[in-house]
Specification:
By secondary structure, the protein is α+β, with helices and mostly antiparallel strands. The protein has helices at about 20-25, 45-55, 65-80, 125-130, 150-160, 205-215, 230-235, 265-280, and strands at about 1-5, 10, 30-35, 40, 85-90, 110-115, 130-135, 165-170, 175-180, 185, 195, 220-225, 235-240, 245-255, 255. Helix content is about 30%, strand content about 30%. β10 (about 185) and β11 (about 195) form a beta hairpin. The protein is globular, with a radius of gyration of 19 Å. Bound molecules: 4'-deoxy-4'-aminopyridoxal-5'-phosphate. Belongs to the class-IV pyridoxal-phosphate-dependent aminotransferase family.
């Protein structure tokens, strides 16, 4: 595989990053994951806008313009012959003597990108649905910034796995914030899609935004508000959204079936129309 590190395309075995990189020492970095379907990028513009926002919130310089980043994304797709999978991009505050204080503004940020070939569109889990375990949300209070501090989400996924589930939903004061690496949604008996409103408590998912718009255009009533774990367990349907899973039905929460315990009609339809729109608008 060819990866991109600070201005150069290199074989992954030859890629290096300083041991003083603040991403490594302080998790002082942000990232984006963009999906590739049929060799094309999905929702590239919105992902770059969110990257710019994450950088701004952390007062971190941008390593390249959106146009340059597009060229690098495409450069990796071509070099690796990527047809379906993900492009991971990470920006850190760069290498500097270890100090809690940020280094001088002219410190060069580090920019790393790599690809992961994966089956995404026809993932078997999309047909069967996934099982969720609830886990307390012990992350920091700025989850709207897409930082590389992913230790707690990683622990939450391991906890979910140890309880026989596929993924975790994070819960705070009885309320579902989001999934460990996705946004959480439910559908009520009258067909209303409920999803947590945007704030510092959750990541502003690019797929969440796209799906909410498609749902509204399709005549689904959408309510952006908090919902409790109890409400989710008693919902007619549940699903998660993310760049890599699109719309993924949830069929079980903490061992309790959601609705009929099979992927719901609204989740299945939203997956279909999301993928159709993704194919249409891919660049
Ligand atoms: N929430 C969290 C905590 C995430 O890590 C992700 C995926 N990066 C999402 C939500 C979904 O965001 P997106 O649709 O932009 O992939």
């Amino acid at each position: 595989r060819t990866v991109y590190v600070n201005g150069a395309y290199v074989p992954e075995e030859e890629a290096t990053i300083s041991v003083f990189d603040r991403g490594f020492l302080f998790a002082d970095g942000v990232y984006e994951v963009t999906t590739v379907l049929s060799g094309k990028l999905i929702d590239f513009g919105p992902h770059m806008k969110r990257l710019a926002r994450s950088l701004g919130e952390l007062d971190m310089p941008s390593p390249a313009s959106e146009e340059e980043l597009l060229t690098i994304h495409r450069g990796l797709v071509t070099r690796n012959g990527l047809n379906e999978g993900l492009i991971y991009m990470q920006v850190t505050r760069g290498a500097a003597d270890r100090d809690f204080m940020f280094p001088p503004k002219d410190t060069a940020p580090s920019l790393v990108l790599f690809t992961q070939a994966m089956v995404l569109r026809d993932k078997p889990a999309a047909r069967t649905g996934i099982r969720i375990a609830s886990v307390p949300d012990l992350r920091w209070a700025r989850r709207d910034i897409k930082t590389v501090q992913l230790l707690y989400p990683s622990m939450a996924k391991m906890e979910a796995k140890s309880r026989g589930a596929d993924d975790a939903w994070l819960v705070e004061d009885g309320i579902v914030t989001e999934g460990s690496s996705n946004n959480a949604h439910i559908v009520t008996a009258d067909g209303t899609l409920i999803t947590r409103d945007l704030s510092h408590s959750i990541l502003h998912g690019i797929t969440r935004a796209a799906v909410l718009k498609l749902a509204a255009d399709d005549g689904v009533k959408v309510e952006e508000r908090s919902f409790t774990l109890e409400e989710a367990k008693n919902a007619s349907e549940a699903f998660v959204t993310s760049a890599s899973t699109f719309v993924m039905p949830v069929v079980e929460i903490d061992g309790q079936p959601v609705g009929t315990g099979t992927p719901g009609p609204i989740a299945r339809r939203l997956r279909e129309i999301y993928l159709a729109e993704a194919d249409r608008s891919a660049i």
